[in-house]
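Cross-posted from the bioinformatics board.
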Amino acid sequence: MASRLEIRLKKELVDAEGAGVRRKAREYFGFEVEDVRVIRVLTFDTDLGPDQLERVRVEIFTNPVTEESSFSPITSFFDWLIWIGFLPGVRDTQGSTAKEAIEDLLGIRIGPEQGLYTSKIYEFRGNLAFEQVNNIAAALLANDIIQQWRIFSNKDWNKDQGIGFPIPKVILNHKPQVSTIPIKSDEELKKISLERNLALQDRDIPVIREYFSRQDVLAARKEVGLDLPTDVELEYISQARSDHCNHNTFRGRFRYHDLATGHREEVNNLFKTCIEAPTLKIKEEKDWVKSVLWDNAGVGKFDDDHYYVITGETHNSPSNMEAYGGAITGIVGIYRDPMGTGKGSRLILGMYGYCVGPRDYDGELRPHLHPRRLLDGIIEGVKDGGNKSGIPTPFGLLVFDEGYLGKCLVFVTAMGIMPAMIAGEPSYEKTTSPGDLIIMSGGRVGKDGIHGVTASSEVYSEHTPAGHVQIGDPYTQKKMHDFLLEARDEGLITFITDNGGGGLSSSIGESSRFSNGCLVHLDKVPLKYDGLDQWEIWISESQERMTIAIRPENLDRFMALSEKHAVESTVIGQYNDSGYLRLDYEGRTCAYIRMDLLESDFPQWEFDAQWIPPHLRGLTEPVITEPENYGALLNEILSRPNICSRNWIARQYDHEVQGGSVIKPLVGIRCDIPSDAAVSRPVLGSNRGIAFSQAIIPFYSTIDTYNMTAATIDEAVRKILAVGGDPGHIGGVDNFCWPTIEYHPTKNPDGKFKAAQLVRSNWALRDYCLAYGIPLLSGKDSMYIDGNLEGPYGERRKVSGLPTLLFTACGVIDDISKCITMDAKFPGDLVYILGETKNELGGGEYYHMMGYTGLNVPAVNAQGLLPQYRALHKAISEGLVSSCHSVARGGLAVHLSMVAMAGELGMEIDLGKVPAVEGLTSTQLLYSETCGRFIITVAPENRKSFEDILAGASPGLIGVVKEKKELTVSDSHGRTIIREEVSTLKASWKRSFGDLI
Amino acid sequence: MTRISNNNKSRQGQVRALVLTGYGLNCDYETDYSLRLAGAQSRRAHINEIIARAKKGLSDYHILVFGGGFSWADDHGAGVLMATKLRHQLGDQIKQFIEDGRLVIGICNGFQCLVNMGLLPGFDNVYEERRVALTFNDSGNFIDAWVKLRVNQNSHCIFTKGIKTMDLPVRHGEGKIVADDDTISALFSNNQVAMQYADESGDQANGAWPFNPNGSIKDIAGICDKSGRIFGLMPHPEAFNHYTNHPGWTRKKEELRRQGKTIETEQGEGIRIFKNAVDYIRATVMEI
């Protein structure tokens, strides 16, 4: 029988969650709500008796100090109530932990047919109309793709019934069955692929048909009782051949044509030529590069006894639909990659990068979620995902641009660490061998993530699972993480990989290539609910699962550890060397595919790429005179969304857990200015560290993606150097997010240009990684960052995101005591600029503020910069540098302000001393975004030593740090053009988002 | 009145600490590391391992650590589900452990667990009553920030002995101490309030944000039982295990360099909390 427990804070206590809703209702919609109180609801669909219910109410679910609760409606005086609960099949982690706690307390098992469901009631007081309340429900509290809600007014409230007994239980009433697919002609298969959402590539269809028509294949299939291909098989092939798993775009053939010069070039395989080849070359030269390009993440050497692991990816489309769920699934998902690298690593940190539409967007297009709400949800998702995993999140970026209204970008990056050797073998090696058992550990399988967003157009009933949107569960995964590390250290794991995109089909499909075959019993896979078809079990993307290979003799020990850690593990098959991937269900074979099928010659994707240089696209430098009020301009630019303080994000992410924080995300005397890079000490007891940083400058793409990429890489490198990183040890991760590059005359008329932008970006990636000696330890590409947004007349307009590259740099620091921060530290210190300033404001923040793009995008001369970088590193290593900050977006003016604001000290700067090309105006000196530059402060007694080391780089001594907290800047004629209190600058910089928590 | 088993005598001189792990707890590596820096022989062990050998009790250990993290994902109240499990599965053993004169520390999620088990405040030596709650921060959100703490010099707290002020990071969403007026007065009159949030000069924060990061009543950051042997605090001493953990270390180092000095010890100040515990065990339990 169903019961419903309602729990609320005692009246006299502050309801912080309710207050937050009230604040947002005012900020977002201008609604004045008197009061909001939140009631937690737990619905029991169990056979617990009254005594048992009362016991769990008192002993588990009610805090006597702060809460009161009842199995009857507990609502009090209100004008409106909003009840919000999950749709069936949406991950209800609190429901699961409630069940676990009840079972533990009462010493019973609650059967799988019973369940506990959490939901919430929001009590509103205030003079609100129904439409307003509905708006709060729909646009602030709930998301209709994972949640349902009901609104009650005080008038229509039945205080005996309350909200009723909502039980979002999944009931499928479906008997699993395998179907076969006719393949008489290419057209027929194409049609069925469309109907069934198989998403087979048109180009692949002839290859697939040919395979299933081969005499030897037919004969072998007959022996296991198969004839025509089954849906399980075609789903498997479709997953394996998807762009996500196979990187067809990056492995494609590009016909590059420069329309200005007429130069034509065929580029065969960007991945091989621009990522793989340079990385393998660098790996030959640098012995710290341990494992790249094949595993879930790259591996570098930390010290003789430890290797670090790094990777990054994006989770864009799901976040765009359900911000919280998408983002938490993204961060928790990326954590599984280092866990599944080599024999498994321990997670040591995560990073984030968000690209969204303007937070205050009030234009006429209607994105599914307003950017403000989208960003709130993304931030919260990564917060819960990171914090609840016990993994610090010490670095991240945020970029606003209207192009991301079409689709937001959520980048997530993770690093792990592992012992160099495990059970006598290098930790980064792993393989499956015939006889190894296939084990699935962690969560159970449901309809999650099957066929992605296409599922969202299906018709819903009360019990249809809303499985296409996932909500990551860091709790389940943290338990699994702890368990697997213990199993690893006992030498039990021979192979491990995660279940992400493609689920088992991908993890087992790929791992069985090592042994050359496998037999999987799909009926042994533990399910969340009955009624899944075989193909659904095989490709479901249900989260928090790893696939592990162990030797049969280790099974008992492995299972004992699994039980100790309260993690579910199940043997679902065995690796073999049969040459076949075979799937059985209740004794019948439903898939039998030769292992070499996927290695056969599937046709390469092809793209036309047409490049038009920026000056022929009509881009020019803008005509702007010198301002009269330089100070006001500086204050204004400091408050711009892409420059201003976003501290509220970093503050809610735990960046200290694991106890190895060395350089934090926010630094300075008040810990409120973003650091260039963060540094962690992952092995406590060792004074070695890891520095890591990210850069993202998509605005330069509008001019030239080659320069965008070069500048992005250089910025990430500079930031690592600024905290004391070594230019000799920098690893990189490339994360591309690109609008669709496949040309279509009406749907994507500029596809050829976007393809050329991608080629040019990759060329820069190759050139600068080679120049700086950066191996690409890992990387991912995410195409299709476009959206069709509804306009005011019911039309839909395509919005494409800027071609975007997030570049992550990491490096090992030999001695963390040599690390430095970017804050000015002592009055009297000398202020230097390293690097020559050029007329490079194109795509920069100053031009943007004035409403222009410009033409002169920064160019990077890596060969010229590298010796300067080495000299700077030497000076920092010798302790000669008091602070160091890389000059990035916004140029010298913004970044001198940062150094002063961080130290809360003044600076007196002479622009005439800034090393620069001839003839720059003061504005150009202040706001040019030329790469390769640093602001450095040095104690006067270190002047000579510092200048000696940097002699070849001719740094400019441009001023001095002052006790008086004032930034003064004089132009080359000695005229003071800026005189601003540092506190005023800081207030401007904090103005835009300073109130956010 | 303090008893130790024969087993312990054979390993005399070793102060043994147990750091609980599992079910979403974290901070275990650095807590274990901090205890070892402080001179203890520390061990991380899964809650289920301890429960499985519950008959053996906790007599192998002198210091029991409920560390930070998100046990059971903080669902249904931070520390609540862990407290329920431990009360029922290990309640007697923990009571015995306390009666034996040993030490218990709860940090952040561990503190939340201690108040939900009723080990704190433990008025009148009744260690099962929930009198204090740690609830949502006034800001409504999780916060990571370094705070200054002032130690009550009249407190019997073993862990804070000899400490006047200390900088430590807080990292929590539910760290606001709430209790009825009588409980709060009793905490003060018994000198059970061991630590309070302070402003930059070390004076009590008086609720001012960001010095008091969560709106805790009377700026309370940590409390102990009357004996001073059970201590719970929201800030994380284990996260200040090395001088480079402190947000001001690069400035401090440069300042010292200019005075011709260097950093005296690499050990972070947070280790003092654990060292006090180790010293106490050496001086009391070990002596008998």
